[in-house]
């Protein structure tokens, strides 16, 4: 694990599922108001919107999701976004999140 990464101290009994909100939880923007589709993923894994603004995840998201997945914990995403198709597209473009077990608009 890279220096400065988050390390989760798992309890003896771990959850079967962890649900994350999207906007300002996984990424630092509202998908329905701050970014402009279509979104594209470059060969280096970076994701951009139509204006070529890079769409970044919060810095600890990847290591946290990787640790959860390494323990067999299912990951789900939930959001109240007014643009579910755009949110789903971004989820698929980020490999760690794209493997989420469940997605639901609340």
How large a portion of the residues is in β-strands, by DSSP E?
A: 15-25%
3D shape: globular
What percent of residues adopt helix (DSSP H or I)? 10-25%
Low-confidence stretches: none
Put simply, the count of helices is: 3
> Cα distance, first to last residue?
34 Å
Widest β-sheet, arrangement of strands: 1-4-5
Give a summary of the structure in a few sentences.
The protein is an alpha/beta fold and 106 residues long.
What does this protein look like?
This protein has helices at 61-70, 84-93, 95-98; strands at residues 17-21, 40-41, 47-48, 74-79, 102-105. Helix content is 23%, strand content 18%. The model has no long low-confidence stretch (mean pLDDT 85). It is globular and about 45 Å long. It has a 3-stranded parallel sheet with strand order 1-4-5. The protein has a two-stranded antiparallel sheet with strand order 2-3. With 106 residues, the chain is an alpha/beta fold. It starts with 16 loop residues before the first strand and ends with a strand. The protein has 3 helices and 5 strands, in the order βββαβααβ.
């Amino acid at each position: 694990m890279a220096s400065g990464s988050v390390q989760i101290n798992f309890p003896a009994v771990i959850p079967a599922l962890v649900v994350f909100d999207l906007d300002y939880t996984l990424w630092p923007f509202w998908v329905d108001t701050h970014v402009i589709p279509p979104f594209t993923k470059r060969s280096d894994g970076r994701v951009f919107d139509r204006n070529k603004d890079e769409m970044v995840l919060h810095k600890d998201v990847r290591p946290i999701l990787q640790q959860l997945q390494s323990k067999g914990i299912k990951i789900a995403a939930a959001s109240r976004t007014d643009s579910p198709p755009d949110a789903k597209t971004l989820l698929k473009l980020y490999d760690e999140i794209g493997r989420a077990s469940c997605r639901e608009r609340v």
